[in-house]
Amino acid sequence: MMAMFFSAALFSCSSGENENQGADAAEEPGLAQEQTTDEAAATEETAAADDGKGVGPVTTVEVGADIDEALAGTGKTLFEGKCSACHQLSDQKVVGPGLAGVTERRKPEWIMNMIINPEEMTKQDPTAKKLLAEHLTQMTNQNVNEQDARAILEFLRKNDKAS
User: Fold this and answer.
1) Which candidate, 55, 50, 62, places its Cα nearest to that of 123?
2) Residues of the chain with pLDDT under 50
3) Is the torsion defined by CA of 62, 72, 148, 157 positive or negative?
4) Mind listing the pLDDT tens digit for each residue in 118-157?
5) Residue 49: predicted pLDDT
């Protein structure tokens, strides 16, 4: 009987010690501070990398003050064929967000990169990640080239100027 008591006491002491070992390791001086420093550096790197232009081939877009009507017309046709099943030109959500005012909220490069490169955008761009989390649907890659994305951008600019 006495042997069982000592065995039980020994077992409970040793198992308690093992459970606390992980907690003690996490409380080592400098470990928590080191993790915080690494997280801060990653956040700074992300902030520095996020210039509002998104992730993709488009780094610079020249848009004029006036709408290029011919380009916007091409963009309208492309939008109706590739985008309108998921997006409205109002602020109403369908599958994806409504696009009213998008050219006022986002840089032209971001819009074009989202059209051309939606998967990488939702993996790497903070704004696109938030949109994916909010709408819970990955934007489908419609295989739009840069020229066509520029036309869609011009159509969206025309829509926003008309509002």
Assistant:
1) 55
2) 1-48
3) positive
4) 999 999 999 999 999 999 999 999 999 999 999 999 999 9
5) 57
Domains defined along the chain, listed by start: 69-162 (1.10.760.10)
Give me the torsion for CA of 27, 28, 29, 33, rounded to 10°: -70
Phi-psi category of residue 143: left, alpha or beta, with phi > 0 → left and psi -120 to 50 → alpha: left
Residues 6+ apart with CB under 8 A from 39: none
Residue 2 identity (one-letter amino acid): M
Instruction: Please state, as a whole number, how many other Cβ atoms lie within 10 Å of the Cβ of residue 7.
Output: 10
Take residue 163 and report the two structure tokens written for it.
């509002």
**What type of residue is 123?**
K
Pairwise CA distance, residues 66 & 145, whole Å: 23
Q: In terms of pTM, does the model score above 0.85?
A: no
